[in-house]
Prior knowledge:
globular; 3 helices; alpha+beta
Amino acid sequence: MTSTTPIGYPAQVTPEVISLLAAGRLLGMGRTKAYRLAKAGEFPCRVLRIGGRYAVPVRGLRALLDHTNEGGSESRPACEEG
């Protein structure tokens, strides 16, 4: 039996960026609002323009989501190094 996982790579690799639509949904907004905010430069975290597409760095999104959870019962640092 052979493995489909390339040698030297972890079994689960997380992406460095996700789509604007996915980031918007994580923040509780719809497609139209996410694109409108990104175009106006007002999206709550950093947005990259790559060609004709928008991409959101996962690190910034995590920092934003962790920051908004600080008031809850599970407090975590706003920014994780690594």
